[in-house]
Amino acid sequence: MSIITDVIQSTVAVIKGMRRTLAEIPREKWTVQYPDDPITVQPRYRGMHLLHVDENGKEKCVACYLCAAACPSDCIYIEAEDDPRPYEQRVGRDERFAKVYNIDYNRCIFCGFCVEACPKDAITHGYNFEISVYNRSDLLKTKNDLLITKQKQSKNYRVALSSEDVDSEYKEV
Amino acid sequence: MSVAVENIPGQFDDLDQSLESQMTLSMGPQHPSTHGVLRLELKLDGELVVKAIPDIGYLHTGMEKLFEYKKYQQGIVITDRMDYLNPLGNNLAYVMAAEKLLDLEIPERAQTIRVLFCELQRIASHMVWLGTSALDLGAMSVFFFCFRQREKILNLIEAASGGRMTPSYFRIGGLMMDLPAGFERRCQQFIEGFPEALDTFETLATGNTIWQSRTQGVGVISREEAIDWGLTGPCLRASNVDLDLRRDNPYSGYETYDFDVPVETDGDVWARYRVRMRELYESHKIIRQALARLKPGPIKADAPKVVLPDRDDMRKHMDSLIHHFLIVAEGFSIPEGEVYHAIEGSKGELGVYMKSDGTPKPSRVHVRGPSFINLQALPVMSEGEMIADVVAIIGSLDIVLGEIDR
């Protein structure tokens, strides 16, 4: 094969490739201009956790420690307390509640085992993945940061509505 | 007990003795074409590689030891992070090893979904391989086309499991949860659009003269050497060895699917490229069949002491709730014994050796990572080649450093 046929064949290959590449220009774009345009996630997406409350605003968590036991990275810390007051004055829905509920997002790997373990549906994953901070100690989230009532006020947060929580029809992406 | 340091032969001893016409070049660990943090110690004669020594361990995280401190079900999340391009394959190898010890029977639907996802993941893994190895050889647009297809697959995986690269979707005894509504339709959409993408790759790479001359006759490994070095997967089949665990040692019902095992004879980079490209067609075929045979049914094995109960069941029935508490809080123990289970991962034979001492935590888990074994053959392939071809050879091996270092 002479150098001339080499050059001709390579040029043909480049032209063929460019034709395919240029044909993409009018087509549908898959790239998302991320910080400017928001990203949609699937309904089951595992983002930052939400601690749920019942219809009267009482916390569902009964501090049974199952999420902490299920966690492969040991990032959940709970302190339980009994609350013998009547339902109207209580913090939680049941007579036992978590006085302290911390998730250390330095360690959390978003595996979803805590959500699977919770017998009261008190913890689920939200859709927030933008949790980077300037200071590592800010990644230790307390109950105040995780409660769904507190997170609704955050503008950045896409709260998982109960209807589209899991097992619902796909969002088109 | 101490070992005298001077008695251990240095790994790079012979490289230190520099010859007149030879030089030693350190390639990596930050070289972009090394796909991770692999360092190659190259001994060069001009542009020819006289000797190549891979230096690994930069990503070591002690995962095999970590298994011993986690309950059986918690070990699944560690497997995600080994070969991070084929996490569902790793999940499958791990859970199947545990299921073999437990002697569990997995329902039909769960098996089909496992096959479906493993093949989707194989395509996604090969997409990264094709994109990055083409990028190394200077073909940039292939990368974007590949990653678009991969994005579609990752969306499917995310829809089912909630995680994109760390799905942890398979559980010991079944699946995490059933497929979401509308999954079949979306999966169908993907497999209908995929042949067009394959045509694109064939146009851009296979039919390209530049691509052919960069890959043909480069990095040849003979049939005998490939067997001696323990190569598996596409690298082995490119050297004319017809071995595929999906067909030869079937698991998860692979024996009921109709697919071919592509084999090439040359053993060079081009042959490995062709084997993987043809595998994409076969995976596409398997996904089509698996999707057609998805029937409603249980997704978890009937083993209340091992498998987490259905959530509705757990809320209503006391005994389910008790099992739920016991499994989560204490884990389940597996009868004493040891087992090795191997599956055909996207890169080769992915085996998990598991030893149980009857407690809820494994006594030992060893992973036979295909990338680790395949990388050993790099010196054989690259000696006598030009230094620029080493990049092509690394790309053709399809290594993932997360799995090599573990």
Short recap of the structure:
Chain A contains five helices and five strands. With 173 residues, chain A is α+β, with helices and mostly antiparallel strands.
Task: Please write out the topology.
The complex is a heterodimer of chains A (173) and B (406).
Chain A: H1 3-22, E1 49-51, H2 66-70, E2 76-82, E3 96-104, H3 113-117, E4 123-125, E5 140-141, H4 143-146, H5 148-151
Antiparallel strand pairs in A: 1-4, 2-3, 3-5
Chain B: H1 13-16, E1 22-27, E2 39-45, E3 48-55, H2 63-67, H3 75-80, H4 87-102, H5 108-136, H6 140-161, E4 170-171, E5 174-175, H7 183-206, H8 209-215, H9 223-228, H10 234-237, H11 245-248, H12 269-292, H13 311-316, H14 318-330, E6 337-344, E7 349-356, E8 364-368, H15 370-375, H16 378-382, H17 387-397, H18 401-405
Antiparallel strand pairs in B: 1-2, 2-3, 4-5, 6-7, 7-8
CATH homologous superfamily annotation of the largest domain in chain B: Cytochrome-c3 Hydrogenase, chain B
Helix/strand structural class of chain B? mainly alpha
Question: In CATH terms, what is the architecture of the largest domain in chain B?
Answer: Orthogonal Bundle
Write down the domain tally of chain B.
2
Cα Rg of chain A: 25 Å
What is the CATH level 1 assignment of the largest domain in chain B?
A: Mainly Alpha
Q: Which strand order does the major sheet of chain B show?
A: 1-2-3
What is the N-to-C succession of helices and strands of chain B?
A: HEEEHHHHHEEHHHHHHHHEEEHHHH
Q: Let me know the number of strands of chain B.
A: 8
Overall mean pLDDT of chain A: 80
Q: Order of strands side by side in the largest beta sheet of chain A? A: 2-3-5
Calculate Rg of chain B over CA atoms. Answer: 22 Å
Low-confidence stretches of chain B: none
Provide an overview of this structure.
The complex is a heterodimer of chains A (173) and B (406). Chain A is of the alpha+beta class. Chain A has a domain at 39-159: Alpha-Beta Plaits (2-Layer Sandwich). In chain A, 22% of the residues lie in helices and 14% in strands. Chain A is built from five helices and five strands; from the N terminus they run H-E-H-E-E-H-E-E-H-H. Chain A has helices spanning 3-22, 66-70, 113-117, 143-146, 148-151; strands at residues 49-51, 76-82, 96-104, 123-125, 140-141. Mean pLDDT of chain A is 80; it is low at 155-173. With 406 residues, chain B is mainly alpha-helical. Chain B has two domains: 5-55, no CATH class; 63-405, Cytochrome-c3 Hydrogenase, chain B (Orthogonal Bundle). Chain B is 49% helix and 11% strand. Chain B has 18 helices and eight strands. Chain B has helices spanning 13-16, 63-67, 75-80, 87-102, 108-136, 140-161, 183-206, 209-215, 223-228, 234-237, 245-248, 269-292, 311-316, 318-330, 370-375, 378-382, 387-397, 401-405; strands spanning 22-27, 39-45, 48-55, 170-171, 174-175, 337-344, 349-356, 364-368. Chain B has a three-stranded antiparallel β-sheet with strand order 1-2-3. Chain B has a three-stranded antiparallel β-sheet with strand order 6-7-8. In chain B, strand 6 and strand 7 form a beta hairpin. The longest helix of chain B is centred in the first third of the chain and has 29 residues, at 108-136. Classes of the chains: A alpha+beta (173), B mainly alpha (406). At the A-B interface, helix 1, helix 2 and helix 3 of A face helix 6, helix 7, helix 8 and helix 14 of B.
